[in-house]
Amino acid sequence: MVKNSFISILLKEQEENKENRGSIEFQVVSFTNKIRRLTSHLELHKKDYLSQRGLRKILGKRQRLLAYLSKKNRARYKELIGQLDIRERKTR
C-alpha cells in the first residue's frame, strides 16, 4: 500500500492549494485514487457490476485527460505518470 500513501500525500499537497483543484494534474490524481480504491473493492466483490461500470467510466475519463495533457505539455505528462506509477498509454 505504499502507492496509496504516496497518492494521499500528493492529494494533500494539491488540496492545500485550493486554486488548482480544476487542474489536470489534480483531476488525474483524484481519479487514480478512486481507481485504486475501486480495484481493491472489486477484488473482494467480483460480481459488483455497477462498480465495474463506474471503474470503466473513471478509467476512460483519466485516459482522456492524460491524452490531452500529453498533447499539450509532454514534460508535465511524463512527470505525472512517473509520480503516479502509471503506464504510458499506447500510441497507434
From TrEMBL:
InterPro entries: Ribosomal_uS15, Ribosomal_uS15_bac-type, uS15_NS1_RNA-bd_sf
UniProt subcellular location: Plastid, Chloroplast
Keyword Ribosomal protein: yes
Record Gene3D superfamilies: S15/NS1, RNA-binding
Top-level taxon of the source organism: Eukaryota
Any one Gene Ontology molecular-function term assigned to this protein's record: structural constituent of ribosome
A GO CC annotation given for this chain: chloroplast
GO biological process: translation
Keywords, comma-separated and alphabetical: Chloroplast, Plastid, Ribonucleoprotein, Ribosomal protein
Similarity section: Belongs to the universal ribosomal protein uS15 family.
Protein name: Small ribosomal subunit protein uS15c
Protein species of origin: Ageratina fastigiata
Name of the gene: rps15
